[in-house]
Design goal:
The complex is a heterodimer.
Chain A: H1 19-28, H2 31-53, H3 85-121, H4 125-138, H5 141-167, H6 176-207, H7 210-217, H8 222-258, H9 270-279, H10 285-313
Helix pairs in contact in A: 1-10, 2-3, 2-10, 3-4, 3-6, 3-8, 3-10, 4-6, 5-6, 6-8, 7-8, 8-9, 8-10, 9-10
Chain B: E1 9-22, E2 25-38, E3 42-46, H1 53-60, E4 68-77, E5 80-81, H2 87-93, E6 98-101, H3 115-126, H4 131-144, H5 150-153, H6 163-175, E7 181-185, H7 193-210, E8 213-218, H8 221-225, E9 230-235, E10 238-244, H9 245-250, H10 255-262, H11 303-307, E11 313-316, E12 321-323, H12 326-334
Parallel strand pairs in B: 3-8, 3-9, 6-7, 7-8
Antiparallel strand pairs in B: 1-2, 1-4, 4-5, 9-10, 10-12, 11-12
Helix pairs in contact in B: 3-4, 4-6
Classes of the chains: A mainly alpha, B alpha/beta.
Chain lengths: 319, 335
């Protein structure tokens, strides 16, 4: 090589860090986002390990200790059956996280796939997928959940019963899975369109960037270009939207449970606890306050984190 | 170069026409271009901005954006038409047989992928290499293009490298699978002059080492002088002159080429002398004049130039110097 050797120049305006580490630095400076992140971490910990750590079982009743005010023994008091509200709120966290994570994951998978296909391949896929998206968005979500509950709940319960009779597998006696299945399914069905639209818009803008043409000039198959060139570059806004989506899914689950079309008692969900507490709140406000406060906290935490991520992942927006 | 012989043509483009679907109907941007590249030859493609240089090269590889389409013509590579081959075959040619180096090193690399991974991608896909082998080859390639400390550079992200480094990485990616043809689309435009000279030297060096053909697109006539074997001058989507490089500089024939050469400043110019320029602007696509597209700006324009389109005809050098100009050709016939 007879070339003039140049120094390994690193541009001095950007520190040598990756996009993600850069974003993390910016996120750390945002106090609200870090507060949100801490709350989410605590709640997630409670969701995973909480039910093993609480002093009381969320189902065990103590009829001698009904409707007690908060105390050191019962942090959030007890309900009308003498169950420990703190343990039930902790278990409700598990319900909320389970629903939020599974629903968001399904919605994300459907939305990202459809959005990426629509944006990358264009018409006619684009047209058909966007029709589908608009159609889905036009369905009132509460109505859909009610319809699904009314039409599918009994058949599934019967099928589970038949499976239990045939196999004697105790899994099929857990009617709670019917609730979860219906909630997951119906919520995922209505939650994917925003992801599909977001991903499509991202892909449309990314598709015209020079590095995509460069990747095509390398003869890489569309699958690889999509997975390694398009999707990673579309990830920033998607992460923000997922963070907000998790919060929304939690609130939605509570709303459905509150209305009796979500997770049903005795399985605790913040929504059905609020619904129970609402009947007696003049006498026992803690029964309403505890789940409502935690739900509010979770929702706010996800909003703050989403906002923080939005600023952190979008360098143009930061000062 | 004896690239006259048909068998030795690696790339042979005939009558390539590209149109943009505009609001006011289709506009022709590349108008029936004929050009060829011999094996081992370096072809310079010269013309001002917007004359269709890049579009021609993108259209060869069917990389045109939506709404821009090839409407006529063939582009044979090794005897097979790139315009009609299946997508699967085309993918093998792209990156495998034909390497591409793009204009803007700042935006032509994937910002969220390490350069090493981007370099390995074509090797894994075209050469079916294992990840480990591809990495070894990637180190070799980075060394080949003169990047110091290639092992560490593999794990760098594009934004951690300077413009010149990124352009070298682009060239390394273009060269990854030992292409028979390297198409470089203004690869030095975004770089400063010293880096430019290094990149030109590098490509010359690699061409001699690897024996590949090169198409170098540029608007810089001075740059191409030391690099190309043959130069094609484009104007408004047509070839106006095609000549061996020495011939072109010694004996520019088309008035447009002469204008271009005259507007290069030289050190021997009087300090106060005005830089000569070509009056007017190239025609907009869709508003091309009926005759020769250069006629409205041409000092030698005659009546026929406004009515008919001149054909590319041999003028000297055993037919290897060709120009599309009525004035030049009639003068030649009269002589």
């Amino acid at each position: 090589m007879t070339l003039v050797q140049t120094n390994p120049i690193i541009t001095d305006d950007e520190p040598p860090v990756s996009l993600w580490r850069d974003a993390w630095h910016r996120l750390k400076r945002n106090k609200l986002a870090i507060f949100g992140l801490c709350v989410i971490v605590v709640l997630a910990f409670a969701a995973v390990f909480g039910p093993y750590l609480t002093p009381f079982d969320f189902l065990s009743q103590d009829l001698d200790a009904r409707n007690q005010a908060p105390s050191l023994l019962h942090l959030f008091g007890t309900d009308d059956l003498g169950r420990d509200v703190f343990s039930r709120v902790v278990y409700g966290t598990r319900t909320a996280f389970l629903v939020a994570v599974v629903v968001t994951a399904i919605a994300l998978a459907i939305g990202t796939t459809l959005g990426a296909i629509a944006g990358f391949f264009g018409d006619p896929y684009d047209r058909v997928i966007m029709w589908l998206t608009d159609m889905t968005m036009s369905v009132p979500n509460l109505l859909l959940v009610v319809v699904i509950n009314a039409s599918l709940k009994n058949p599934i319960a019967k099928w589970m019963e038949a499976q239990y009779m045939a196999t004697l597998n105790p899994f099929y006696r857990e009617t709670i899975w019917i609730d979860f299945f219906l909630v997951f399914g119906s919520m995922a069905l209505i939650s994917w369109p925003p992801y599909a639209r977001l991903v499509r818009a991202q892909v449309l803008s990314i598709r015209s960037r020079p590095y995509i043409t460069a990747a095509m000039a390398l003869g890489l198959p569309n699958r690889i270009i999509m997975m390694r060139y398009v999707v990673p570059n579309a990830l920033g806004p998607l992460i923000v939207s997922v963070s907000a989506g998790l919060g929304t899914a939690m609130v939605l689950e509570s709303a459905f449970s509150f209305l009796g079309v979500g997770v049903n008692p005795p399985t605790p969900s913040w929504g059905n606890m609020i619904s129970d507490g609402l009947r007696v709140w003049q006498h026992y406000p803690h029964l309403l306050a505890a789940p409502a406060f935690v739900l509010g906290l979770a929702s706010v935490a996800f909003s703050f984190l989403g906002d923080g991520l939005n600023d952190a992942l979008n360098p143009r927006g930061s000062k | 170069m004896t690239a006259q012989n048909k068998q030795e043509r690696l790339l042979d483009v005939k009558g390539l026409t590209v149109e943009i679907d505009g609001r006011r109907g289709p506009a022709v941007v590349v108008d029936g271009i004929d050009l060829y590249v011999g094996k081992g030859e370096t072809l310079g493609v010269v013309g001002e901005s917007g004359c269709g240089k890049s579009l021609t090269m993108l259209s060869l590889m069917r990389l045109l954006p939506n709404k821009i389409k090839v409407t006529k013509g063939t582009a044979e590579f090794n005897g097979r038409d790139l315009q009609t081959m299946s997508n699967r075959e085309l993918r093998k040619v792209r990156g495998g047989d034909i390497g591409f180096v793009f204009q803007d090193p700042m935006t032509s690399l994937n910002p969220v992928m390490k350069v090493g991974d981007q370099l390995c991608e074509p090797l894994i896909y075209h050469r079916k290499m294992s990840k480990a082998d591809a990495r070894k080859r990637a180190v070799e390639l980075l060394r080949l293009v003169g990047i110091p400390g290639p092992e560490e550079r593999l794990d760098a992200y594009p934004h951690e490298l300077s413009g010149g480094m990124r352009q070298r990485v682009m060239i390394a990616i273009g060269l990854a699978c030992d292409p028979k043809l390297l198409i470089a689309d203004e690869p030095t435009t975004a770089l400063d002059v010293t880096i430019q000279a290094q990149i030109v030297d590098l490509v010359k060096d690699l061409r001699n080492k690897l024996g590949m053909s090169v198409v170098w697109i540029t608007h810089d006539l001075a740059l191409i002088a030391g690099l190309a074997d043959r130069v094609v001058v484009l104007y408004a989507g047509t070839v106006v002159e095609d000549a061996p490089v020495d011939d072109l500089y010694a004996n520019p024939s088309h008035p447009y080429t002469r204008g271009l050469l005259a507007s290069i400043p030289t050190l021997s110019d009087a300090p106060a002398a005005r830089l000569s320029s070509i009056g007017g602007t190239p025609p907009e696509p869709g508003r091309r004049p009926a005759g020769c597209p250069f006629a409205p700006r041409c000092p030698l324009a005659m009546d026929i130039c406004l009515r008919e389109v001149p054909k590319l005809e041999p003028i000297s050098s055993e037919g290897r110097h060709r120009a599309a100009c009525f004035a030049v050709n009639t003068a030649l016939k009269a002589a």
